[in-house]
Amino acid sequence: MAASSSLQFTATPFNQFHSKQVPKHATKWGTIRCSAASPSKSYNITLLPGDGIGPEVISVAKNALQLVASIEGFEVAFEEMPMGGAALDAVGVPLPAETLNSAKKSDATLLGAIGGYKWDKNEKHLKPETGLLQLREGLQVFANLRPATVLPQLVDASTLKKEVAEGVDLMVVRELTGGIYFGKPRGFSTNENGQEIGFNTEVYAAYEIDRIARIAFETARKRRGKLCSVDKANVLEASMLWRKIVTALASEYPDVELSHMYVDNAAMQLVRNPKQFDTIVTNNIFGDILSDEASMITGSIGMLPSASLGAAGPGLFEPIHGSAPDIAGQDKANPLATMLSAAMLLKYGLGEEKAAQRIEAAVLDALNRGFRTGDIHSAGHKLVGCKEMGEEVLKSIDSKTPAAV
Predict the structure, then answer these.
(1) Is 204 a catalytic residue?
(2) Could you read off the pLDDT of 330-349 as tens digits, one per residue?
(3) What is the pTM of this model?
(4) Could you please report the per-residue DSSP string of 179-194?
(5) CA dist 196 to 183, 202, 264, Å?
(6) Annotation says 292 is catalytic
(7) Does the annotation count 107 as an active-site position?
(8) List 89, 264, 326, 354, catalytic entry
(9) Active-site residue 169, yes or no?
């Protein structure tokens, strides 16, 4: 078997999210009672299964949350709400007001995946992806943490040479609520020649850069002390301001080594020599692209979780893979990214570090025991579906003496 390893998702500490009252409109809360007579803590979690493989992977992650809660002696309650294409089909909008209210009143929200071919031709305001942008904006989650770690068990699944991929362990800190995805003006018009044009605005205010940069410096401080800020300051004014503010903050973090890199070079270096990176901080659109590129270094986008956090209030946790409508309902999805997102929810959203570590260790144990879904399968390992992979992880969580990981 592969050498032992551990998953370490380190980041700046955020305000502890206190339990909140169950919303009055809730009708689907399912409460999981712990074995302890009187659990001292209880949490409300909003589940957004979404579309495609979303419901399958959320079901598996929910089981993991239930089990670790019972072991660690706290109580969890779930409310499942529609979002994305499922919400469009049900009520005609991608993010119903009731769904957003549930997420706001919860202690944390776990999202599966949204989107699919069925809704691709919808007008923009009726696309599932619009609902996701609205959710991030509504929760005011501005910092997206996306770890990309090449596990020893899966190094051969990477498309890069083993000597390049082995040992990669980086974190992308992506600004999530500003930049070209939200900037105004935006829209469609005609130019002086009467030709149709589409336009968007890349804009950042100083405070938006300052707060995401501080998160990144704190994250790097808790990792290996190296922060690379990625921009396009040789061309874009928004990037020039970005670099100016990030550079000015460096004096407050003398223990962190700051470097800068243009985004085109960063994209190349992620493939050429990914081990040079520890923590990367970048804007919304660059972070979207680079974190997906980094995910493939690990062997499969189906392995990577993410956390979206704000200064206060509940966080949003989700795998970075899409809805994969081509395999939806076929028990072929990889649930591990969602289970690891549940671990990040426990760690960053609820402050339940031990419970998070149980899930992380169990994922590694299942991999060490040779179980693989189709996206990470190779000769000599057992090919399993989404449900069975989840069951194997649950066995590892429930084991009093887990196998060495």
Answers:
(1) no
(2) 999 999 999 999 999 999 99
(3) 0.81
(4) GGGT-SS-EEEE-TTS
(5) 20, 20, 29
(6) yes
(7) no
(8) 264
(9) no
